[in-house]
Each structure stands twice: as structure tokens, then as C-alpha cells.
Amino acid sequence: MSKKHKLVYHGHRELDEPGACMWCGMPTTESAYVVNPGGSPVLRCCCQDHYERARAYIERDNKVRNAFYIVIGLLVAANLLMIGLEVHAWWTYLPLIGICLSVAVWPQVFTHYSLYLKLGLVRTRRIIRIIALALAALGVAASVSLT
Questions:
Q1: d(CA 106, CA 65)
Q2: CA 41 to each of CA 14, 30, 53, 71: distance values in angstroms, whole numbers, following the listed order
Q3: pTM exceeds 0.85
Q4: What's the CA gap between 13 and 33, in Å, rounded?
Q5: Which of 40-48's residues contact partners 24+ apart within 8 Å by CB, and which partners?
Q6: Could you write out the DSSP letters of every residue in 101-123?
Q7: Per-residue CA distances from 105 to 92, 100, 124 (Å)
Q8: Per-residue model confidence as pLDDT tens digits over 51-61
Q9: pLDDT at residue 5, rounded to an integer
Q10: pLDDT tier for residue 8 given thresholds of 50, 70 and 90
């Protein structure tokens, strides 16, 4: 990359600053594998393999995100209905368990992938899945206690 192109990268001067790899979260100054050229923030990858995985993830995320929004919206409406009607049965917590399992399947449904730069996509998805499954286990325990 030319010196002029490095200095002003589509209005960004942050290519010379170290950043985190979008996939693994490791520090990198690599400017050859930028996932979103011209975007803000600059999403870098440390190697070709992580670059290809991140690109495939972004394409898959753009296709699947709306379906998960619809599923979670329906489950939230059902959960609010259960709360509003003050139902005390074993199936009261099923919408909450469904929300947790939906988040466990697709952890990035709530925020955009560019917000996961500090830890990387792999670690962040793992952490969110563990939290979602723990909440689902609490929902199952609560529904079992009502029987």
C-alpha cells in the first residue's frame, strides 16, 4: 500500500494505529486484510484465514439477522403477555427460555458485529452463549419449581 494511501485511508488515519483482529481479538497492525474498506471503525484481520471467515460471517449475519429479530420479537410479546396475565403455570417461562435459546444460536442478534472488536468474534460469541444458556437453565429451574 502506498504511503499516501496509508496516511489517508478513505478519511481514516487509524490504519497506522494498532487494532484488534475482528475474528480472534489479537492485536494487529495488518492493513492488507481490512474487512470493511472505507468503513468506520476499520475492521482488520490478522491473516487471510481470519479475513475469509470474517467476510463469510458478515454475509451470513446479513441474511439471518432479520429472521432472528422476528423470532425474538414474537417471544418477547409472548413473555410480556405472560407477565401481564400473571400466569403461574409450568409453561410461563417458555418464552424466556425461547429467547435465551435464540440468543445462544445467534449471539450477535442484539448488536452489530463491529462492537465485538475487543475480544474478537469467537470469544465474544462464546461468552454470550454461556450467559444465554445459564439464563435458560434458570428459566427451566423456575418452571420446574412451579410444577
A1: 8
A2: 9, 15, 19, 29
A3: no
A4: 16
A5: 40/12, 41/14, 41/114, 41/117, 42/9, 42/12, 42/14, 42/15, 43/114, 43/117, 44/19, 44/20, 45/21, 46/21
A6: HHHHHSGGGSS-GGGGTTT-HHH
A7: 22, 9, 13
A8: 999 899 888 88
A9: 44
A10: very low
